Amino acid sequence: LITDGADILDIGGESSRPGAVPVSLDEELSRVIPVIEALAGEGACVSVDTRHAPVMVAAMAAGATIINDITALEGDPQSLEIVAPSKASVVLMHMQGDPRTMQEAPVYTDVVAETGAYLLTRIRACQQAGIATERIAIDPGIGFGKSQEHNLDLLRGLSAFTGLECPVVLGVSRKSFIGRLSGEDVPDRRLAGSLAAGLAGVARGASILRVHDVLETRQALDVWVALK
Hints:
Helices cover 41% and strands 12% of the residues. It has 228 residues and is an alpha/beta fold. Helix 1 (25-41) packs parallel to helix 2 and helix 7 (191-203) crosses helix 8. It is globular, with a radius of gyration of 17 Å. The chain starts with 8 loop residues before the first strand and ends with a helix.
């Protein structure tokens, strides 16, 4: 992934796809810590994808410099106090519900406004805890407690999140909304749709793309930037 052009490697040991069942803390630690240690030892910039404070502590000790939390440091009551005194950056994501149930019946009056309002409250909570604004990035959480129309509305309105003055992280790679739009049921055959959605997000202000297909995304971005 580094050779293909990845700037950050995001390491997670617990699936957060719709319907996913949580794993034990010991299992999550055993999956991610050796990988983080090895990659950080090679000089990689490593992010840990976790919602559990003990994993955050161990991951930072192993060399992770970014905490990517689908609960925006709210799922574990110890997260804020653990991360604040560190030098780690954070990615705060919006999610309605939890992975097991989030796609059952998501409801919003205005998904862009409500997602933005939530992320603003979490930015402020981090700032009050001592996490400087320059350490914070935000993620609207495409596919996390959102219907097809919610996802499309968020992508169309993504530029609204740049007003929160934190880098916007966007994860659209291979997601089910691309499959529904294109009729492609196999996730790893959604590259073209992933590139289209990712570039549309960058055009609307996304600063970081979380992807599976690094080489292809890097090439698409290089061409897009040159043309822009």
